[in-house]
Design brief:
By secondary structure, this protein is α+β, with helices and mostly antiparallel strands. The chain folds into 3 domains: 209 residues, Nucleotidyltransferase, domain 5 (2-Layer Sandwich), CATH 3.30.420.40; 112 residues, Nucleotidyltransferase, domain 5 (2-Layer Sandwich); 120 residues, no CATH class. The chain is built from 16 helices and 24 strands. Strands 12, 13, 14, 15, 16, 21, 22, 23 and 24 form a 9-stranded mixed sheet that branches. Strands 1, 2, 3, 6, 9, 10 and 11 form a 7-stranded mixed sheet that branches. A hairpin with a 5-residue loop joins β22 and β23. It is globular, with a radius of gyration of 24 Å. The chain starts with a strand and ends with a helix.
């Protein structure tokens, strides 16, 4: 049976997932840069210079690819040769003119990875190219308005769709790690486009059971170090005929859909995802000791969450780093007050003439109420921004699919369902089941790596070589598992609070 490898080259680590023709995950591995490549002296995979200049050593990535492939060989042994295709995902001129002049090819991380595997330059993938501000996202070609001939020569050919066959794996990997010399290397995309590509591939009857039951869209929420909300769009929202943009038009990023030629996608990104949740969790655990397990810290967090109710009169905002939307930093609390006093310096008007007192706190002032306030705040922000981008939550959204490590967090999953007033789902692999015969939940695996593995299987099945020689029936089978349904009273409470929440968040942004 043919095997397929998906690779996710991200900021802090490189991850690989091997699946078979049914989509079953046979093996996954990762290389943590800080721990396994200490000679590069990175922190969280990065080197920060001059206060705010962040870089990652490219040679570190090259070494990490080698270590990942060694781990695959060590685990799979001779079965490494059964890997038939590899897919994946990944996450100067004005300042250094001489460097720019000496640059032969400009690559994104997502084109750098297949370039290493091919041993030659790989083209840039169209969805990841959308974020360069050099692509005409309607024609899907490099823009002649922004690119002169010199820049075009450095960018290479026009961008390609995700999962296109680019060539065969370089002999270096064949000889050193035992890969098949006819192993295909496919075009790769960014981590967020990879996420939506995998979830949207579930709409195909070839890959799923009962994913799409209507014409409503599927919204994917990825819970990681940063949180993201992604959903497809059938129409490009901007044109010369459009009215002048409003402030809400600047929320989120529009990019070309990585695998569907006539669609786009919208990405809402939040820097302070698990980064902020883990900070609050650590503070409430009263311990930053490395000897206390993460599970123990989160069990303590759940206990506090369940034993500390909050009212509709309390709101918190947690921006450890300056957030993207809204552009705010710091930790802020708001509490409704009945009477103003002369000591109340920062008073904010809410809905219906209500007044809120605003205070800014530091990390050491985090209390038990912040357990509920941070989850409430993060999910309400997601819903607010979805509505500001024109989504009618209950009529436009068919399903909410939750991925990422925090998709196993019962508290967060229930809050998402309650705030959006929509059932939430995770992803199961039907070919692998637990002791009760239920499909294994794969939502916490790297979705970009899964997208890469699935794109590799499709690439292989479509190739001319495989069309004549393939003997495997490549039919990965995934389904959605219902995780949580909304609790009616909770949904009503969040709905009643949204107007105040919106006004308070806008007030914060006006201060920065």
């Amino acid at each position: 049976m043919a095997l397929f490898l998906g690779v996710d080259l991200s900021t802090q680590q490189i991850k690989g997932i091997v699946i078979d023709s049914t989509g079953s995950v046979l093996y996954d591995a990762c290389v943590l840069y800080d721990n396994e490549l200490t000679k590069y002296k990175t922190t969280n995979g990065r080197i920060v210079k001059d206060g705010n200049r962040v870089t990652s050593p490219v040679l570190m990535w090259v070494d990490a690819i080698d270590i990942l492939f060694f781990k695959l060989k060590e685990k799979l042994g001779p079965n490494t040769s059964r890997i038939r295709a590899i897919g994946g995902a990944a996450q100067i001129k004005a300042e250094s003119e001489s460097d720019y002049k000496n640059t032969e090819r400009i690559s994104l991380t997502s084109s750098f990875l297949p370039s290493i595997l091919l041993g030659k330059y790989a083209p840039i993938e169209v969805s990841d190219a959308s974020g360069m501000n050099l692509l005409d996202v309607q024609t899907r070609k490099w823009s002649r308005h922004f690119c002169d001939d010199e820049l075009l020569s450095k960018l290479g050919p026009e961008p390609v769709l995700f999962g296109e066959a680019l060539g065969y794996l370089n002999n270096y990997f064949v000889e050193k790690f035992g890969f098949n010399k006819e192993c295909l290397v496919c075009s790769m995309t960014g981590d967020n486009p990879g996420n939506i590509s995998f979830v949207d591939s579930l709409s195909s009857s070839t890959f799923s059971e009962g994913i799409n039951s209507s014409n409503k869209i599927t919204v994917t929420i990825s819970l990681g170090t940063s949180d993201t909300v992604i959903f497809p769009m059938n129409k490009y929202p901007y044109s010369l005929e459009s009215p002048l943009p409003s402030a809400n038009d600047y929320i989120g990023n529009i990019f070309v859909h990585p695998s569907l030629p006539n669609k786009w996608a919208l990405l809402l990104g939040y820097k302070n995802g698990s980064l902020a949740r883990e900070l609050v969790c650590g503070r409430l655990s009263n311990c930053n000791s490395k000897y206390i397990s993460e599970d123990s810290k989160w069990l303590r967090f759940y206990d506090i969450y369940n034993s500390t109710p909050i009212s509709n009169n309390e709101f918190g905002f947690y921006y450890i780093l300056q957030e993207i939307t809204p552009r705010v930093s710091g930790i802020h609390r708001f509490s409704r007050i009945s009477n103003e006093t002369e000591n109340d310096v920062d008073i904010v008007s809410g809905a219906s003439g209500s007044k809120f007192k605003h205070i800014t706190i530091n990390e050491s002032s985090i209390t038990d109420s912040d357990a509920r306030l941070i989850i409430k705040s993060q999910i309400m922000s997601m819903k607010l921004d979805c509505t500001r981008k024109g989504l009618d939550i209950e009529s436009d959204i068919g399903k909410l699919v939750i991925t990422g490590g925090a998709s196993k967090n019962e508290v967060i999953m229930q809050t998402i369902s309650d705030v959006f007033n929509i059932p939430v789902y995770t992803i199961d692999n039907n070919q692998t089941s637990d002791s009760n015969g239920v499909g294994i939940d794969i939502s916490s695996l790297s979705m970009p790596a899964m997208a890469g593995a699935i794109s590799a299987s499709l690439c292989y099945s479509k190739s001319q070589l495989s069309a004549s020689l393939i003997s495997d029936d490549i039919r990965p089978s995934y389904s959605l598992r219902l995780s949580k349904t909304p609790i009616e009273q909770n949904s009503k409470n969040y709905r009643d609070q949204m107007e105040d929440f919106s006004l308070l968040r806008d007030h914060l942004e006006s201060l920065f």
